[in-house]
Amino acid sequence: MRILHVAAECYPAAKAGGLGDVVGALPKYLNRIGVKAGVIIPKYGTKWLWEHAFRTVHTGSVRLNQHHIRYSIEQEVNDTLGFTLFAVHVPGMFDRPGVYADPNTGYGYSDELERYLVFQQAVLQWIIASDEKPNILHCHDHHTALIPFMTNYCPEYESLSYIPTVLTIHNGVYQGIFSWNNKDLLPYFRTFAAPVLDWNGMINSLATGIKCAWRVTTVSYSYMEELSVSSNGLEPLIKSEWHKCRGILNGIDNETWDPATDPRISYRLNKDVKMFKAQNKMSICEKFRVDPRLPMITFIGRLVGEKGADLLPDLILRCAQTGRRVSFVVLGTGDRSLHQSFLHLQWHLQGIFDCSLEYNENLAHQLYAGADFIIMPSRVEPCGLNQMYAMRYGTVPVVRSVGGLKDTVWDHGDWEGRGFRFQQFTVDDALHAVDRAVSVFHDQKEFNRLQAHDMAIDFSWDSSAGNYKKLYEELL
Questions:
Q1: CA distance linking residue 235 with residue 210, whole number of Å
Q2: How buried is residue 95: exposed, middle or buried, by Cβ count under 10 Å (0-12/13-18/19+)?
Q3: Which residues in 30-68 are b (16+ Cβ under 10 Å) and which e?
Q4: Residue 383: pLDDT above 80?
Q5: Domains, the chain, ranges and CATH?
Q6: What is the pLDDT of residue 149?
Q7: What would the pLDDT profile of 335-347 be if each residue is shown by its tens digit?
Q8: What is residue 78's DSSP assignment?
């Protein structure tokens, strides 16, 4: 069984969020259970992609309105990731330092539509020309969601219509919507198929993929249910296609995220969890100006409304103003107004709050290892991986009860609780969860038990990969 994952990200080659982590881990675990899985992504100008050796396996050109765009398909020479990685090299379109946005300005690239239309067609042209074709095409998010449409309704690609397609929705907020004025950028398609592209008067890539894919999956059970009632206008479509929808919970790569061997942290775990946490916490306090005696809560991720990052300034300020003995450390980048809010707090709350407004993988690992708690006040969280990474390192999650956070973080007050949950997106509700967490922190016997319990949970990809294998077998 040969599976080709088509995605915009793949860790460590190119990553902007959880999509990259999933695509970088799932194929590796599929290969271990006998499913031959490979990945194809665009060849961005990231350090990893340009430092590793690739060889060209196919060349061609894609029509984009009146222009023909040259591309080449390249294969990583040494297979260093545990699966075969291919990259679509399109000079001038993808060879830029950021995945979706310029890291220097934070602004997204204006030609995203053109870039991913070229990428998807290049993948299909290469498959048509290949002697060994995949048994299943597994597409990820809106960047690749038009592939099921193209294989069904575009004469150039209809020879691939027999290949089953799976579309995984990692984040339904982003749908790849564009105007019908841009329809000429698409490959030629059957005229009668125009309604398949349309959703509310626009061409909607994600909606089209949901209509055309053989199976649609989301990255947690609860998120699939949430999409059926709240998905930015796609609710009736999700309900009508419910018969082919599945929720499969993501896993994490236990080899990358292993406190006993992690090269990115200052002190590795050697049986003594208390010493492991204490030493790594001191390492954090050497970089961040926070009091090591206080329970430390960290936020790691994109500073955007979707992640609930805009709740944090008021929450942190309320804790400081009411004399709560707790510290906060924020790592991430995103909304520039939030950057200003955090810099303001950094100046006024020394010893209580500090931040690093950047994407820094090494520092993220250190925070997982040294913090006492991680807070995730997300408005939307399809699965969430940070809470699983955190528990692996003995950092207890404080989360809003949505999506995958609800599926993975059982409340401390419930049977086999793993962390602290709150329901409403309000400072008061979040503050109550923080108070509960800090109260348990000061009960060292209970806190140590909770840490040990969380660290023993198996969130690896083994189970999830098995569920995907069953899904593929159904389709074949």
A1: 12
A2: middle
A3: bbeeebbbbbbbbbbebeebeebebeeebebebbbeeee
A4: yes
A5: 2-251+461-475 (3.40.50.2000), 273-455 (3.40.50.2000)
A6: 98
A7: 999 999 999 999 9
A8: S
